[in-house]
Structure formats: structure tokens, C-alpha cells
Write a structure and sequence with these properties.
Length: 424
């Protein structure tokens, strides 16, 4: 039996333990107190990356989640004395070294320099929703300058101000070089109407990879309120309402049909889809159901958004032998929400490599002062762990690796985009 400690010995032991804890607490206090003096950059902000693309990448498609340039995003730009383009300050190199860039734009475009627009905004607000947000026309220019090729407007805020927001947004689109997805003057427009500049909300946009592989991309939202849905002769966003799911099926089938048969001749079909539950890290049954539906009719890459947080990546098998990679939510990219999970972000990069292989990589990002930037500093390990754990949690271990600070999914091992080869 061990000998009892005397009062003096016990006091000495308590003192030693107190000193050990005091050192730890003092260190934490010093770190916290140092932040105002050294700035946020000292502990988690990234420097401007110089190279973001390795030599083995033949072609790269970059994808991001929810963006908006109103509310506090606009306020932060005003307070900084910089143009709204500041939101992309730390991401320009990633987009500059991409061949195609796309994302979801979460607001309508309203020109508040126009007194007539301002005079009608209050009356135009839809009363069947609580939150109404918008961005100014220069947001489109900021997206262009950042390197975006297309943006999806099919979401639950595009028509926050009813017909006013629709007409203002379509006007801004008409003045922009950006391809816009999921919003338009109607669905099933005639060739004559399209030639006159009208926009079909269910239009499939196309681009070519190195002239050999044809890609179709479309926008759709499962989250909307009454008055949002485009239909024949009615403008709006592309939703499942009014036979919208059947229309989506037809557009997907048409995209994959050979050009000589009047189809789009797409080798790859990508779908932007606004869906799910806000702030829920996991996807719901409706997302799973829609993912299978879309895959059954030819989707290969599904770009999800709406929850404002990252959600797991999954792989879905279609009934036609097709297999799709599903990014259930890419979270926020440019937004003003303050919860930690709403600030965790990513750039998804679909890479076609020189050796013919394909991979989907994720750059870990964090939004600070409305600016997304790659994780850095002493919080990087922790942030990367959280981001990557969420994204890969439902994938088999043999499909993914973490290399060079990126989560990389082997699409060949996953059986996605089989038959697509840029080297042939």
C-alpha cells in the first residue's frame, strides 16, 4: 500500500499542476490577444496562390456553390473602399487556370440606381417568402472578371421581387457575356423567339473540351415558392412544377441524343440543382430520389447547392447503365452568413489528365469577411479535416486520397464518365 502524502507534499503537487495549467492558459490568452495586433491573416488566411494547376492536367472544369453580392457582401465592399470584385481576390488564380468555371448565383439583379426600380421594390416583394435579397448589375461584371463561364439562376431567391426581379435579371443577362442557366422568358420557346433574343429557362448550354468532347450543362431548382416557375408563355426559373420534371427528362435525353438525330450530341451532361434542406450537413430522401431520376436520363455530374453547408459526395447508378457523381452541396462560396459550417467552402475541380484518367478534386476554402480563400495558417489542418471528412464520408476508401492539400476522387475507380477519353 502506497504511503500517504503529507499536507506539505499535497500542496506542492497542487502548485505544480496549477503551474502547468497556467502555462497552457497563458499561451491561449497570448494567441487570442495577439490576433488584433497581427490581424486575421496571421492565423488562418491564405496568401495569393501562384500556381494552382499541375502540368498533368489537360482540361479543368471548376465548380462552386452559392454566391450573392448584396446585403453584407455589398456592405463589406463599401467599407473596404474596394469594388465588389474584391470577393474573388483570393480565387482569381484558381479560375484563371481553369478552362471552364460555373457556379450558382443566389439572387436576382436589381438596378437600384434606377429610381423607378427603387420605387417599385417594396410592392414587388413576394409576400409568400420571408427573405428577399438582390445584387446590383455590376455583380455580373464581377463574375465575368473572375473568370466564370456560366452561372445558374434556378434557385429560391431569383424571383424574390416577382416580375420586377425577373425582368431586371433578364435585362442584365442580355448585357452580359455569361451563359446563364435555369431562368428565362418561358419554356419551349420557338426558334424565332430564340433568334429574337428570348431565353428558354430550360435551355441546355453546350461547350466543347479540346474540340473532341461535348458537354451539356443545365440549371434546375427543387426549392421555390408559388410564382417562381417558368412554363409555356410564362417567365421564371426551371422547377418541377407544371410538368417540369418531364421537361427536365426530355432535355437530358435530347442532350445525349446524337446530333444527326437532332440531339445535342453531349458526351457529358452536367446538372446544376438547387435542392435539400438549409443548414443540414446530410442530404435528404428527396435529393436521393432526384439524383436517381436525373441519372436515369443521362446526367453524369450533378452540382448541388442550397443548404449553405457542405454535404457528402455520392455516386448514383442509373437504370440505363449510366453512373453519376453527385456533389449534394458545395456550400457557400460568396456569402455573408456567420455560422462556422456556412463559412466552410470548396472549389470542386473536374480534371481530365494527360494520361487519360479523370479525377474530381476539392480545394478546401474558408470564407472570411465575405471572401473565399484557401485554408491556411495554424487552423488549416483542422479546417481541412472537417471539410474533407464531410465530402468523402460516404465514399469507399479506395476511391479517394488526400494529396497536396486536396481531396481527390478517382473517377475511373468510381466508374464515372466511362468512355470519355481526351487522349484518343
Amino acid at each position: 500500500m502506497s504511503e500517504k502524502l503529507s499536507f506539505k507534499d499535497r500542496l506542492k503537487l497542487v502548485t505544480i499542476r496549477h503551474r502547468q495549467k497556467a502555462v497552457l492558459h497563458a499561451t491561449i490568452a497570448i494567441v487570442i490577444l495577439a490576433i488584433p495586433f497581427f490581424g486575421h491573416h496571421w492565423y488562418f488566411s491564405a496568401n495569393m496562390p501562384t500556381e494552382t494547376r499541375s502540368d498533368d492536367v489537360n482540361y479543368r472544369i471548376s465548380m462552386v456553390g452559392d454566391m450573392m453580392m448584396g446585403r453584407h457582401v455589398h456592405d463589406a465592399a463599401v467599407q473596404s473602399g474596394e469594388p465588389i470584385d474584391r470577393v474573388f481576390e483570393y480565387t482569381y488564380p484558381f479560375f484563371e487556370e481553369s478552362d471552364y468555371v460555373t457556379g450558382n448565383f443566389e439572387t436576382p439583379i436589381l438596378d437600384t440606381d434606377d429610381p423607378e426600380v427603387v420605387a417599385h421594390m417594396d410592392d414587388a416583394e413576394l409576400h409568400n417568402k420571408d427573405i428577399h435579397i438582390y445584387s446590383e448589375p455590376w455583380a455580373m461584371e464581377a463574375l465575368e472578371n473572375a473568370g466564370f463561364d456560366s452561372v445558374n439562376f434556378a434557385n429560391n431567391h431569383a424571383l424574390d421581387y416577382g416580375d420586377l426581379s425577373l425582368q431586371q435579371t433578364l435585362s442584365a443577362i442580355g448585357s452580359s457575356s455569361l451563359e446563364t442557366l435555369g431562368i428565362g422568358d418561358a419554356i419551349n420557346l420557338s426558334e424565332e423567339e430564340l433568334k429574337d433574343g428570348a431565353i428558354d429557362a430550360a435551355d441546355m448550354s453546350y461547350f466543347n473540351i479540346n474540340g473532341d468532347v461535348r458537354v451539356g450543362i443545365i440549371g434546375f431548382t427543387d426549392v421555390f415558392v408559388q410564382g417562381f416557375s417558368a412554363q409555356d408563355f410564362v417567365g421564371g426559373v426551371f422547377t418541377p412544377q407544371y410538368q417540369g420534371l418531364a421537361e427536365l427528362r426530355n432535355r437530358l435525353l435530347e442532350a445525349k441524343a446524337p446530333e444527326e438525330e437532332g440531339g445535342g450530341g453531349a458526351d457529358i451532361v452536367m446538372v446544376h440543382i438547387h435542392w435539400g434542406d438549409e443548414y443540414q450537413v446530410g442530404y435528404n430522401d428527396r435529393q436521393e430520389e432526384l439524383a436517381h431520376y436525373i441519372t436515369n436520363y443521362g446526367a453524369d455530374v450533378i452540382i448541388g447547392h442550397h443548404s449553405h453547408v457542405l454535404e457528402p459526395v455520392t455516386v448514383v447508378d442509373g437504370t440505363n447503365g449510366n453512373r453519376a457523381i453527385v456533389m449534394n452541396s458545395l456550400g457557400n462560396f460568396v456569402f455573408d452568413q456567420g455560422w462556422t459550417r456556412t463559412k466552410e467552402s470548396t472549389i470542386a475541380q473536374l480534371d481530365f489528365l494527360n494520361d487519360g484518367t479523370k479525377q474530381l478534386s476539392f480545394v478546401p476554402m474558408y470564407i472570411e469577411n465575405t471572401q473565399p480563400r484557401e485554408t491556411a495558417g495554424w487552423t488549416k489542418f483542422y479546417r481541412d479535416y472537417r471539410i474533407f471528412r464531410t465530402l468523402r464520408k460516404e465514399l469507399p476508401d479506395e476511391w479517394w486520397t488526400i494529396e497536396d492539400g486536396r481531396l481527390k476522387i478517382d473517377l475511373d475507380a468510381a466508374g464515372v464518365l466511362e468512355g470519355v477519353d481526351l487522349t484518343s
